[in-house]
Amino acid sequence: MSERFSRTELMLGKDALQRLKNSRVAIFGIGGVGGYVAEGLVRCGVGAIDIIDNDTVGESNLNRQIYALESTIGKNKVDVAKQRIADINPDCVVTAHNKFYTPETSSEFDFSQYDYIVDAIDTVTGKIELVMQAKQYKVPIISSMGTGNKLDPTAFEVADIYKTSVCPLARVMRYELKRRGIKHLKVVYSKEQPITPKGSLRDPHRRQVPASVSFVPPVAGLIIAGEVIKDLIADI
């Protein structure tokens, strides 16, 4: 038993650990949520991870994103993530895509190679396209709903998109997915009523910037990581 994952093997068993080692998971978006998804998967022994994000680490990321440090500001998030993953498990095969995922860029990804897809991106059009690709290639997917303007990390739940409530993003996704004939989507969402930010910030590339804290997006990310692990080894 390798010392690196010895505690995990005691929990899950040798066969499950081998399954994880042979699995390839794609994480679309490695910000406040997706960064912690990657952290959870790598530390559980997932053998291959694709990370997709075109953003650079900014000072405003320091309050909540695992890759955000004074030493990484200005660097591509996927490059920083790849280095951290190598420091945790150098045997993990990391494919970094410094790319903004949209319906227009979806053809650049071979979804048939993935054992699981994690949607941790912000744009509705991108999220819907990921779901459609997952359906086409019969790949399991889990999607993160909104974590901005939330303060209660205990309010997160795992549910089917059509059983969600309160979350504004989930409401939009339900409508759009129903129009496209998608009957199920596993999501992590919060029933907490969004908090009104105590001020206003605007990003030149987006509308009003949501408020966020250090302990909410990471919880959503680790919940997602746990669901991915459980699903990958469910039949063992």
Tell me what you see in this structure.
- It is a single chain.
- With 236 residues, the chain is of the alpha/beta class.
- It contains seven helices and seven strands; from the N terminus they run ααβαβαββαββαβα.
- The protein has helices at residues 6-12, 14-21, 34-43, 77-88, 124-137, 168-179, 217-232, and strands at residues 24-28, 48-52, 93-97, 116-119, 141-144, 156-160, 186-190.
- Helix 5 (124-137) links the parallel strand 4 (116-119) and strand 5.
- Helix 1 (6-12) packs across helix 2 and helix 3 crosses helix 7.
- The two termini are 19 Å apart.
Entry keywords:
single chain, 236 residues, alpha/beta, seven-stranded mixed β-sheet, globular
Share in helix: 25-40%
Number of helices: 7
Beta-strand proportion: 5-15%
Low-confidence stretches: none
Mean pLDDT: 96
Radius of gyration: 17 Å
Secondary-structure element series:
HHEHEHEEHEEHEH
Task: Explain the layout of strands and helices.
Elements: H1 6-12, H2 14-21, E1 24-28, H3 34-43, E2 48-52, H4 77-88, E3 93-97, E4 116-119, H5 124-137, E5 141-144, E6 156-160, H6 168-179, E7 186-190, H7 217-232
Parallel strand pairs: 1-2, 1-4, 2-3, 4-5, 5-7
Antiparallel strand pairs: 6-7
Structure described in brief:
The protein has 236 residues and is an alpha/beta fold.
